[in-house]
């Protein structure tokens, strides 16, 4: 039996990117901990599949077609939440992607597009959820950043890194300004966690795997289901005095100096 502090029974959660990867696993984890979940994604069939798995657990789940780059769609989705659930206790701001290219060649419009998706979309989600949580006097927001928003990934991900850095700072601003009114805001910084895009990249360029693993002291990639523990911790009263935190979920990546080695390190052969 799990500790009652981790229970989400009677809570309503909203998760973006709920059709696959960490958004899907976070949604399933919240439902397993007792929450009803509203599932946002542009892949509606995928979100419906997550919803049917949640319903099989005896929880309520609604899949919604919502592009988090589109502020009008976000506002409409929250109006639907008001009608269907009448409250929000937990927000998982997961969906989003970057664009790759050399900084000297990248059109500014592409950088703006990534900011629209990762920064303004996440902010609009936080604002809509925050307004409702402030009225309730309680709520927990979990933003997805990345290790790439903390240090440079150094391989053409500049707009992604800039955006994720903004997400980390947005988390600090919101947590500071809402803490005394009962709303906690934290963010999670994953290192490389297996998803369909990463699997395809490793398939086409196998050396990518060793490059990534070379930066991860645990000597492996993350698996999407490993989000469940940190997400349930941050969503629940188990983290009642935790706000404004950037939690690495990275197998030790951010703790290690770029030149760091140790016995058994993937960077040390023989
Ligand atoms: N996987 C990693 O290695 C990693 C590392 C650091 C950060 N992240 C971040 O974590 C988040 C989830 O990553 P993942 O690996 O679980 O991804 P994933 O590709 O497995 O799933 C992403 C989901 O988001 C949906 N989505 C994409 N754009 C959307 C949009 N505009 N509106 C609504 N839904 C949209 C997709 O349809 C998909 O279901 C992303 O923000 C990603 O940048 C991932």
Description:
The chain has 270 residues and is an alpha/beta fold. The protein has one domain: NAD(P)-binding Rossmann-like Domain (Rossmann fold, 3-Layer(aba) Sandwich). The protein has eight helices and seven strands, in the order E-H-E-H-E-H-E-H-E-H-E-H-H-H-E. A seven-stranded parallel beta sheet has the order 3-2-1-4-5-6-7, sandwiched between helices. Helix 2 (44-56) links the parallel strand 2 and strand 3 (61-65). The termini are far apart. 44% of the residues are buried. The structure holds nicotinamide-adenine-dinucleotide (NAD). Nicotinamide-adenine-dinucleotide is lined by residues 16-17, 19-23, 40-43, 46, 66-69, 94-97, 117, 144, 146, 190, 192-193, 195, 197-198, 224.
Q: Which architecture name does CATH use? A: 3-Layer(aba) Sandwich
Q: In terms of per-residue confidence, which ranges show pLDDT below 50 for 5 or more consecutive residues?
A: none
The CA-CA distance between the termini, in Å, is 44 Å
Q: How many helix segments?
A: 8
Judged by helices, strands and strand pairing, the structural class is: alpha/beta
| Count of separate structural domains | 1
Instruction: Give the CATH class.
Output: Alpha Beta
* Strand segment tally: 7
Read across the widest sheet, the strand sequence of neighbours is 3-2-1-4-5-6-7
User: Given the C-alpha coordinates, what overall shape results?
Assistant: globular
N-to-C SSE series?
Answer: EHEHEHEHEHEHHHE
Share of helical residues: 40-55%
CATH superfamily membership: NAD(P)-binding Rossmann-like Domain
List each distinct ligand once. nicotinamide-adenine-dinucleotide
- CATH topology grouping: Rossmann fold
Q: Estimate what percentage of residues fall within beta strands.
A: 5-15%
Rg over alpha carbons:
18 Å
Major sheet: 7 strands, parallel
